Amino acid sequence: MLKILSARQIKSLEESYLEEKGILSLELMETAAEAFCQWYMQNFSRRQDIAIFCGTGNNGGDGIAIARLLSRQGYPVCVYTLGDAKDGTADYNSNLNILPTNIVNKPFSNIDWERFRCHVIIDAMLGIGLNKPLEGKYLDAVKKLNSQKTMRIAVDMPTGLPSDKLVDGEAFQAHYTVTFQTPKLSALFPEHAAYVGDLVVKDIGIDGKYFNGYESSRYFVEEKDILERHKIFHKASHKGDFGKVLLVGGSKGKLGAIMLSAKAALRTGSGLISTFVPGFGLPIMQSSIHEVMVETCTGNDILDSAPENLDRFDTIAIGPGMGTDEKTAEALKNILESYKGKMVIDADALNIIAKRKDLKELITSQMILTPHLKEFERMVGDDVKYPEGRIEKALEFSQTYGCVLILKGLHSLITTPAGIQYFNPTGSQFLATGGTGDVLTGVVASYLGQGYSVENAALCGVYHHGLAGQLAGEDQRRGTIASDVIEKIPETYKNLGLS
Ligand SMILES: NC(=O)C1=CN([C@@H]2O[C@H](COP(=O)(O)OP(=O)(O)OC[C@H]3O[C@@H](n4cnc5c(N)ncnc54)[C@H](O)[C@@H]3O)[C@@H](O)[C@H]2O)[C@@H](O)CC1
Ligand SMILES: [K+]
């Protein structure tokens, strides 16, 4: 896990790290520049002309060092500078002094935009030192650079994006942001996706113990955290070990939702899946998914009763495609009151709970709630437009009701009642399509059924779902549908080297 710190905390952490290690900030800048170049050289060829735009702070210092290192490796680079070197930081100037003279270094104001050409733009204008919205030449630069039809890469943070809050005005729109050591909070806001692009986190050697003295309950999940949380099954494991899962939902016109959840749970590794749907769904379910068992409620069109003997199941997920009829609400209440095992609450179950205080009171520590932004807004009855406030609200909700909350979106946020918030690293824009939420419900329910704790089921579920989305997106691009995501779940295990 990477602890997420504020810009102020990062600066203080850097100081104590340098002091304790007895190294110079210039050396750390060199490490950061090397880390950037290592990533760059793995991804881009020497045939692409690079224009590096530098400020005169330490972000600019990174840029100048990057220019020297890439040029030394045979990459064609030009530097364009905003600001005056005499106002520059010591480390910026130290790097400027050793910039080889064969590298063109022009003031930004001298660029002839009619004739300006390059393949890759690297933004090292401003990083975590940003302290006001862009104006003047920085604003001008960002506007000009955003309009270029080239690859754009930001060093540490896109210029103009504050580290801890929502952007005010314009910012550099990167295809990739290569950030150092740990992501900055605002790089994880879905609202900033167009500025951050794909986020790459590069280690610059500040090890975890230096983070201990800094208070933060927010973490960025890494692959190794997921590997640690998975259960290992063996040859003699039988289907009972993989869990008996019940999925409740579906209504006329929305049976597909529960089918997607069921298929996703099967592909995630569940042993036995049962579904509980309105009567009309029986032949449809049975003819379309042969691996699931189907039970029906009393009514034909809507879910109007609860299943018998709920204790037969290791876990229950409820909500996909369920509708919000009064009778359905009563059936939900019945299930929430009588079932004591772990549960996933999604979609229409959330919409029903949002309107009923008595049902909110039935939320327990055994439950994972999986709202998207709109559903969350209904649950908290408040505007959650601003990401800083939304993250706080998620914490408040989880602590008030004692449940795990998965707030879905880019970098889905998992909040636990203990007050820890995890940002998920996997996912893709191609997950923004109907039914992917139902897929997530099936994946998370599957892990609960396999005996994972609510926290681990949420973390592993969101991670695998996002990774499956990435893999599906690589093949299908904007044609990705929820079923493609399901088909890629098995590959996520292969990808992580899991059996
Ligand atoms: N702190 C760390 O851990 C490390 C930091 N490094 C680099 O250092 C950067 C931070 O450097 P600095 O603190 O010098 O800050 P920046 O280089 O981000 O900004 C430089 C200066 O620009 C001015 N400024 C702020 N907002 C402005 C605006 N809107 N328009 C015009 N000028 C503005 C401020 O006076 C600020 O100090 C990081 O983003 C990263 O790139 C790396 O070299 C290595 C490790
Ligand atoms: K930058």
Automatic annotation (TrEMBL):
Annotated cofactor note: Binds 1 potassium ion per subunit.
Domain of life of the native organism: Bacteria
NAD as UniProt keyword: yes
Annotated positions binding K(+): 59, 123, 159
SUPFAM superfamilies linked to this entry: Ribokinase-like, YjeF N-terminal domain-like
Gene Ontology molecular function, alphabetical: ADP-dependent NAD(P)H-hydrate dehydratase activity; ATP binding; metal ion binding; NAD(P)HX epimerase activity
Catalysis: reaction(s): (6S)-NADHX + ADP = AMP + phosphate + NADH + H(+); (6R)-NADHX = (6S)-NADHX; (6R)-NADPHX = (6S)-NADPHX; (6S)-NADPHX + ADP = AMP + phosphate + NADPH + H(+)
Pfam families: Carb_kinase (PF01256), YjeF_N (PF03853)
Biological process annotations from GO: metabolite repair; nicotinamide nucleotide metabolic process
Cofactor annotation: Mg(2+); K(+)
Binding site for AMP: 408-412, 437
Gene3D superfamilies, per the entry: 3.40.1190.20, YjeF N-terminal domain
Assigned keywords, A-Z: ATP-binding, Isomerase, Lyase, Metal-binding, Multifunctional enzyme, NAD, NADP, Nucleotide-binding, Potassium
Domain YjeF N-terminal: 10-212
Chain positions recorded as (6S)-NADPHX binding sites: 58-62, 127-133, 138, 156, 257, 321, 372, 438
The protein's Enzyme Commission number: 4.2.1.136, 5.1.99.6
Tagged with keyword 4Fe-4S: no
Record-linked PANTHER family: ATP-DEPENDENT (S)-NAD(P)H-HYDRATE DEHYDRATASE (PTHR12592:SF0), ATP-DEPENDENT (S)-NAD(P)H-HYDRATE DEHYDRATASE FAMILY MEMBER (PTHR12592)
Family in the record: In the N-terminal section; belongs to the NnrE/AIBP family. Belongs to the NnrD/CARKD family.
Chain's role: Catalyzes the dehydration of the S-form of NAD(P)HX at the expense of ADP, which is converted to AMP. Together with NAD(P)HX epimerase, which catalyzes the epimerization of the S- and R-forms, the enzyme allows the repair of both epimers of NAD(P)HX, a damaged form of NAD(P)H that is a result of enzymatic or heat-dependent hydration.
Subunit note: Homotetramer.
Protein name: Bifunctional NAD(P)H-hydrate repair enzyme
Species in which this protein is naturally found: Litoribacter ruber
Gene label: nnrE
